Amino acid sequence: MNFGLYREMLRIAPIRRVLLIGMIARFPHSAAGVLLTLHVVNTMDRGYAAAGAVAAVVTIGIAVGAPWRGRRVDTVGLRRALIPSVIAEAVIWSLAPHASFEWLLVLALVGGVFTLPVFSVVRQSLGVLATGEQRRTAFALDSIATELIFMMGPALGAVIATRSSVIGLTAVGLSSALAGLLLIWFNPPTRTPEAANSVTAADEQAAAAAAAVAVAPANVQEAPMELTGAGLPDGPQNLFGRLRNGLAGNFGWVTTSVAVVFAVSVGAGLLLSSTDVGIVALVEAGGNASEVGIVFVAWCAASAVGGILYGAMNRRISPMLLLLAMGVLTMPMAFATGTLSLALLSIPPGLLCAPVLSSASERVADLVSEERRGEAMGWYGSSMTAGTALGAPVAGLAIDVIGPWSGFLMAGGAASLLVLVTLTVRHFVRRPVPAA
C-alpha cells in the first residue's frame, strides 16, 4: 500500500474542489432516507412496509431519471442539465411532508426523477481529472468523503425527525436546491478539452450532413431504388433495421464487463438499502430511535477506513468478490441484541462498502469511453437505485412479518445470491462455443 497517493491527489486543486462540492451536495439527501422512513412510520402512523414503498418509489424515480440526466450532461453541459433538478428539489420536497400517503408516493416518484445527479457528476468529473491508476485513489477519496457525510446526515435526520419530520423534509429540498446552484456556479469539468472539441466538430459535421440531405429531395426521387430497401417506405423490415441500428448506436458501449459492473451496482443498492431499513427498525424496536446515529456512525466510519485502505492499494480487487464478502458479513447483524452490539456487528461489512463502490466506479470509467461516460455513470446509478428500490420494501415487509432481525438475513443472502448467479451467467456467456 502507498498512502502517499492521497497526498499527491489532494495537491490537485480541481480534485479537492470537486470532492468538497460533492460532500456539500450529498449532505441533504444523506438525511432524507431516515427522515422519510420516520415520517411515514411515526408522523403518518404507517408501517415499515409503507415506508419501504416510499423509499422504493423514490429510487425508481432516480433509476428512471439518472441515465437521462447523465445523457443531458453529456449533450448540453452541466449547467443547463442541472436547472430542472434545482427547481424540482425546492418545490417537491417542500410539498411532500404536507401530502397524504397516496400523493406522497406521486411526489416521491417525481422527486426521484429530478434528483440532483451528484453521484454521476462527481464521479464523471473525477474520471476526467484523474487517469489510469490515479482513478482508484480518486474514487476512494470520494467514497471516504461520502461516508463522512453519511456518518452525520442520518444521525441529524433522526434527531430532526423526533421533533418535526415536516421541517426536516422541507429543509432537505431547499438545501438540495442550494447545493445544485453551487454545482452550477463551480461547474466542475465532465469532459476533457480534447473530447469536447471533437464532439463539437462531430456535431458540426452531422449538421452539415443533415443540411445536405434536406436540400436534395429531387436527387433522391430521381435515383433508382436499390434492392436493399434503403429507399422503400417504412415497412416492418425497415423499422426493425432502424430500431436495431439505433439500439446498437445508443447502447454499443454496454459490453459483458459493463453489465457485470451494473449487476454489482444492483446488489450494492439492495444490500445498503435493506441494511439501512434494518438498522432503523432494530433500533426503533428497542425504543431508542435517537440512537440510530450511533450505528450509522460505526457503519460509515468502517466504510471510510475500508476506502482509505483500498485507495492506497497497488492492485485492483474484483467488485464482485468485494460484494460477495460484504453480503456474507452483513448477515450476522441479525444477531444484534441492542444498539451497541448492532454498531459493532456493522463494522465488518462496513469495511467493504466504500471499496465495493470505488472498485465498480473505477471499472465503469475504464470500460466506457469519455463521450458516453456521463450516460454510463447514470445507468450505473440507476442500477444501484433499482437494487435499492427492490431491497427497501422487501426488507420492510420481512421486518413487519418476521421481525427487525430478518432484514439483515434477507439483505446479505439476496446480495450473495445475486453475485453467484451473475458469476455463473458470465461463465457461460464467456465460454467458447465448441466447433460443429
From TrEMBL:
Location(s) in or outside the cell: Cell membrane
Signal peptide span: none
Keyword Membrane: yes
UniProt keywords, alphabetically: Membrane, Transmembrane, Transmembrane helix
Top-level division of the source organism's lineage: Bacteria
Keyword Transmembrane recorded: yes
GO cellular component, one term: plasma membrane
InterPro entries (alphabetical): MFS, MFS_dom, MFS_trans_sf
Record GO terms (molecular function): transmembrane transporter activity
Membrane topology according to the record: Multi-pass membrane protein
Domain Major facilitator superfamily (MFS) profile, chain residue ranges per copy: 245-436
Membrane-spanning residues: 20-41, 47-68, 80-97, 103-126, 138-160, 166-186, 251-272, 292-313, 320-347, 405-425
The protein, known as: MFS transporter
Taxonomic path: Bacteria, Bacillati, Actinomycetota, Actinomycetes, Micrococcales
